[in-house]
Amino acid sequence: MTGQDIRITGPAGEFSAYLAKPASGTGPGVVVLQEIFGVNHVMREMCDRLASQGFIAVCPDLFWRIEPGVDITDKSQAELDKAFDLMGKFNPDTGIEDVQATLDHVRKLDGCTGKVGAIGFCLGGLMAYLTAARTDSDATVGYYGVNIPNFLDEAGKISKPLMLHIAGRDEFVPPESQAAMHTGLDPHRQVTLHDYPDDEHAFSRIEGKHYNPQSAHLADSRTLEFFRKNLKSE
After folding, report:
1. CATH at residue 104
2. β-pair partners for 192
3. What does R_g of the chain's alpha carbons equal in angstroms?
4. pTM of the full predicted structure?
5. Within a 13 Å sphere around the CA of 198, how many CA atoms are in the beta-carbon half?
6. Catalytic amino acids?
7. What percent helix, strand, coil does the chain show, rounded to 5?
8. Which of 90, 156, 166, 187 would you label with 180, given CA atoms 20 to 30 Å apart?
9. Tens digit of pLDDT for each residue in 66-92?
10. Mean pLDDT over each residue of the chain, to the nearest integer
11. DSSP class of residue 76?
12. Which InterPro entries does the entry link to (predicted)?
């Protein structure tokens, strides 16, 4: 299993992505949708972890239209300021075009079995929801997605499985937003919501200040089972 940088061509141009393949060289695909810190070591390690579980994982640079190659952390105020500035400039409507281009690219990679899903965190959690509503992803997972209630009118377009992990004490997703997500999505047969009542935003980010290993393990176990059920043929 070795990671490498690749290039993907979308409707608006070419952008970079990080690719990790399993040791076997074959498997279903998973598109990893970044947090507001770009394609950094956290996202690359997520790809590597998915590859170790038998998936071909690709993390596209969703900020390329604003600033290509963003790779920062949450460890300094300057980096945090930059991350939130990038999030403010980011357009989910054009971003989802790049997600679809990435899904298309992964399906054509040597060794891909054909089925391709997606997983996203924070900003990527919102993009995961939109991926389920607007693309042909075969199965999608979102962790502590922000601003999802603004797009609940698109829930009817979700035709394939979606799982969302919700942090109960998320500073960016207040209780009323979480309630709206449950009201809008609980009745949907393709959507599963999991609540983590005592956890804060980014509870699954290793090294993050809100990291909770127990909740992260639970969420990741649910995610892995979900992908194995919906993306693997055996």
Report:
1. 3.40.50.1820
2. 163
3. 16
4. 0.97
5. 5
6. 170, 201
7. 40, 25, 35
8. 90
9. 999 999 999 999 999 999 999 999 999
10. 96
11. S
12. AB_hydrolase_fold (IPR029058), Dienelactn_hydro (IPR002925), Dienelactone_hydrolase-like (IPR051049)
Cα separation, 79 vs 68, in Å, equals: 16
Residue 144 Cα distances to 48, 228, 233, angstroms: 21, 21, 28
Backbone angle region of 212, left / alpha / beta, with phi > 0 → left and psi within -120 to 50 → alpha? beta
What's the rounded Cα separation, in Å, for the pair 154 and 219? 25
- For the chain, the domain total comes to 1
Q: Which of 219, 228, 218 is nearest to 139 (CA)?
A: 228
Can you give the pLDDT at residue 232?
85
Percentage of the residues of the chain whose pLDDT score is greater than 90: 95
Name 24's Cβ contacts closer than 8 Å, sequence gap at least 6: 54, 111
Bin 127: left if φ > 0, else alpha if -120 < ψ < 50, else beta: alpha
Quote the pLDDT of residue 170.
98
Measured between alpha carbons, how far is 174 from 118 in angstroms, rounded to an integer? 25
Structure-token match 């965190």, residue found: 121
Each residue's pLDDT tens digit, 26-52:
999 999 999 999 999 999 999 999 999
Domain interval for residue 49: 3-231
